[in-house]
């Protein structure tokens, strides 16, 4: 008898994908995470664009994490130009990144992932029995969006990000107005983490290679070396010497691998495991209160890693605003030159690597973008290989839900991959 | 006594960044109220629940870039009473339409190691090129206040109040100093559809046209001002070639600039 576990259209992820698991007897013979988001060709049409246009264009790769795209692009182009904005501009960029982490983690944790743990179709159905938690989650998300809106002009595709800094720096009063909601959101995030710690996490562990940025003294957003739990410690410009992207027939997203080793995991759990010592006091204390400390190799607990990062981002946002003095100029400028630049930042769902080559006039000659979903895609498939025997033993509906939940551990962003889920389990004897 | 059923709301996605449907989830204060007023019948980004059609209100995000999607939108139209497109991809082809005037095979070779694995049309086209559209909401991304206004109007059975004038009018209403007149910053505000609240000028930069062309535009008319502000014909051509590149007035304006560039370069020999 042939058996197929099939999720035809994976819900509560961003973009379009499907999953097929085929069985030969009790053993999985194929696991295919198919991404059928149509190709959108960003790297191709960036060619010939002026470098100042790049942050606005790459924002359009993803509606959930446009800030990450803008920041990786800015860092890469500034690297090529030889400028490094510091001081208040750097602090404002960190604040903008805090805003995006808060809104994106808030969306994923409360609206997309928590319903899996409590057995609801969506957050709206969950709100019928857990209205106060959903309302708290929406409040947290709103506080993050308020940061991005104040600093970026709007929450989706911010207009105020510029190579070298910002078009206009906010006033002290504009940022201070955000503080009451951020303080309330921080307290709510601490309460929510304790609530989520009581969820039933499926027993599942794997020996992952975690990859994330690491900064000498900060929890990573946009600067640092690329490090891994199995010994990688490199500059962003050396990414291509240690990682490769493979094209598989069943997906428009490329699969990234560590050369010589294979799949790796990036994102909140990787950052948490590799950078726990750089969490602020408040986030670390919250994690320790629920006994959530590294090493954690259970991907379902990425929910808790996001919860801890919510506290980290809210706490840091408050500190940045409280010590904010506007910069003398909102941006620094530099004349274009022929050069190649590299940028790597931590999008909410994982590392986002960019490389640009520009000509003398500052027009882009070549662009390469490696989004988090491409990097995690092989890792998701490996998780499903290991999960497959358990899925085979479950009734079909339960197997489908569990497989979807395992995919959602990664908060995959399929439009990002530009390049999500139908589950099919097929069995042949 | 039989209670009246709540209207069914469906959201479908085609080639896009998901940002416009995310605008609905970004209505943090109104989302649970909206969920009380409608039945969410299909909204893959937010729910795994799927109700059968017909749908009373269908929101469509994204452009048509594959033969399969061209077929899918016809099926969705057949199941929808009121179909509304949200955003620049669905109303003008989006940023994906930058392929339309180029060699898509070459694009595929640039991005993918195995172009033979890729299935795509040579063009990215708006939904209205394929099926009847009842209302179009502009923007890259749409403005969530406008989205709520249209949904509230539909639920109340009245016409939506969505301005069709240019960003310039909103900018004046907002009391901004004109960035082009006062600072010589090139700005597409005079020819761009209102909706964003004149954000870019408010943040001291020129409008880059993300809401697409206003209902009536005079792109020729602002060319002089853009050139005087220091933009080259190449800069102006690129400015029109972004998120609404295939919207006819912007496409035409871009072509006019390309003609100017060729005239400037003189005959090739």
TrEMBL record, chain A:
Q: Which domain of life is it from?
A: Bacteria
Q: Which cofactor does it need?
A: Ni(2+); Fe cation
Instruction: Give the residues the record marks as binding Fe cation.
Output: 65, 416
Q: Which residues bind Mg(2+)?
A: 43, 62, 369, 419
Pfam families to which the protein is assigned, alphabetical: NiFeSe_Hases
Q: Where does Ni(2+) bind?
A: 65, 413
Statement: the UniProt record of this protein carries the keyword Thylakoid: no
Concerning InterPro entries, the annotation shows: Ni-dep_hyd_lsu (IPR001501), Ni-dep_hyd_lsu_Ni_BS (IPR018194), NiFe-Hase_large (IPR029014)
Report the GO molecular function annotations. Answer: ferredoxin hydrogenase activity; nickel cation binding
Q: Does the keyword Metal-binding apply?
A: yes
Keywords tagged on the record: Iron, Magnesium, Metal-binding, Nickel, Oxidoreductase
| Annotated PANTHER family | COENZYME F420 HYDROGENASE, SUBUNIT ALPHA, F420-NON-REDUCING HYDROGENASE VHU SUBUNIT A
Say which family it is in: Belongs to the [NiFe]/[NiFeSe] hydrogenase large subunit family.
UniProt protein name: Ni/Fe hydrogenase subunit alpha
Species: Polyangium spumosum
UniProtKB/TrEMBL annotation, chain B:
Q: Which keywords appear in this protein's UniProt record, sorted alphabetically? A: Oxidoreductase
Molecular function in Gene Ontology = iron-sulfur cluster binding; oxidoreductase activity
Q: Which InterPro entries match?
A: Hydrogenase_assoc-protein (IPR051349), NADH_UbQ_OxRdtase-like_20kDa (IPR006137), NiFe_Hase_small_N_sf (IPR037024)
Show the Pfam families listed in the entry: Oxidored_q6
What range(s) does the NADH:ubiquinone oxidoreductase-like 20kDa subunit domain occupy?
17-154
Return the protein name: Oxidoreductase
- What is the originating organism of this protein? Polyangium spumosum
């Amino acid at each position: 008898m042939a058996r197929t576990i099939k999720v035809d259209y994976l819900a509560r992820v961003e973009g379009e994908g499907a999953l097929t698991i085929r069985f030969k007897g009790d053993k999985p013979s194929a696991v295919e995470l198919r991404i059928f988001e149509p190709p959108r060709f960003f790297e191709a049409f960036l060619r010939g664009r002026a470098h100042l246009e790049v942050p606005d264009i790459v924002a359009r790769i993803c509606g959930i994490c446009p800030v990450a795209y803008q920041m990786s692009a800015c860092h890469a182009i500034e690297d090529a130009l030889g400028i490094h904005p510091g001081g208040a501009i750097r602090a404002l960029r960190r604040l903008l990144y805090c805003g995006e982490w808060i809104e994106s983690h808030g969306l994923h944790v409360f609206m997309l992932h928590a319903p899996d743990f409590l057995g609801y179709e969506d957050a709206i159905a969950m709100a019928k029995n857990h209205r106060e938690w959903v309302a708290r989650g929406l409040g947290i998300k709103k506080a993050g969006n308020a940061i991005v809106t104040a600093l970026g002009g709007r929450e989706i595709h911010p207009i105020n990000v510029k190579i070298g800094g910002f078009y206009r720096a906010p006033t002290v009063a504009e940022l201070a107005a955000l503080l009451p909601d951020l303080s309330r959101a921080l307290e709510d995030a601490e309460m929510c983490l304790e609530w989520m710690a009581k969820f039933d996490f499926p027993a599942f562990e794997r020996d992952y290679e975690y990859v994330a940025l690491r900064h000498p003294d900060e929890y990573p957003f946009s600067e640092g070396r690329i490090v891994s739990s199995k010994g990688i410690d490199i500059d962003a410009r050396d990414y291509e010497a240690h990682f490769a992207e493979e094209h598989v027939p069943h997906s428009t997203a490329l699969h990234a691998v560590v050369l010589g080793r294979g799949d790796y995991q990036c994102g909140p759990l990787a950052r948490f495991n590799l950078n726990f010592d750089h969490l602020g006091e408040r986030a670390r204390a919250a994690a320790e209160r629920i006994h959530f400390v590294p090493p954690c190799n259970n991907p379902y607990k990425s929910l808790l890693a996001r919860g801890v990062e919510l506290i980290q981002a809210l706490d840091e946002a408050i500190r940045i605003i409280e010590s904010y003095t506007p910069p003398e100029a909102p941006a620094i400028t530099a004349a274009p030159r022929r050069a190649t630049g590299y940028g790597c930042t931590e999008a909410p769902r994982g590392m986002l690597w960019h490389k640009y080559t520009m000509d003398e006039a500052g027009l882009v000659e070549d662009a390469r973008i490696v989004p988090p979903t491409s990097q995690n895609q092989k890792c998701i498939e490996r998780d499903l290989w290991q999960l497959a025997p358990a899925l085979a033993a479950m009734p079909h509906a339960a197997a489908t839900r569990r497989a979807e939940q395992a995919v959602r551990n990664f908060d995959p962003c399929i439009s990002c991959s530009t390049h999500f889920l139908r589950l099919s389990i097929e069995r042949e004897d | 006594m039989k209670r009246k059923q709540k209207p069914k709301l469906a959201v479908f996605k085609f080639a896009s960044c998901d940002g416009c449907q995310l605008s609905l989830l970004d209505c943090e204060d109104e989302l649970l109220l909206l969920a009380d007023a409608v039945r969410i019948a299909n909204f893959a980004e937010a729910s795994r629940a799927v109700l059968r059609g017909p749908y009373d209100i269908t929101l469509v995000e994204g452009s048509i870039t594959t033969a399969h999607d061209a077929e899918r939108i016809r099926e969705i139209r057949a199941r929808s009473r009121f179909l509304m497109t949200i955003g620049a991809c669905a109303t003008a082809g989006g940023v994906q339409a930058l392929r339309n005037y180029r060699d898509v095979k070459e694009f595929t070779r640039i991005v993918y190691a195995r172009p033979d694995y890729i299935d795509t049309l040579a063009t990215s086209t708006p939904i209205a090129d394929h099926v009847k559209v009842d209302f179009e909401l502009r923007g890259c991304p749409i403005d969530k206040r406008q989205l709520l206004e249209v949904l509230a109007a539909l639920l109340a059975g009245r016409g939506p109040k969505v301005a069709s004038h240019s960003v310039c009018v909103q900018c004046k209403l907002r009391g901004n100093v004109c960035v082009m007149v006062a600072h010589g910053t090139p700005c597409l505000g005079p020819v761009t559809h209102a909706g964003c609240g004149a954000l870019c000028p408010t943040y001291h930069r020129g409008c880059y046209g993300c809401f697409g062309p206003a209902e009536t535009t005079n792109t020729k008319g602002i060319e002089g001002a853009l050139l005087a502000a220091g933009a080259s014909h190449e800069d102006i051509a690129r400015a029109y070639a972004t998120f609404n590149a295939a919207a006819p007035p912007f496409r035409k304006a871009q072509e006019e600039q390309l003609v100017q560039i060729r005239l400037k370069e003189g005959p090739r020999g």
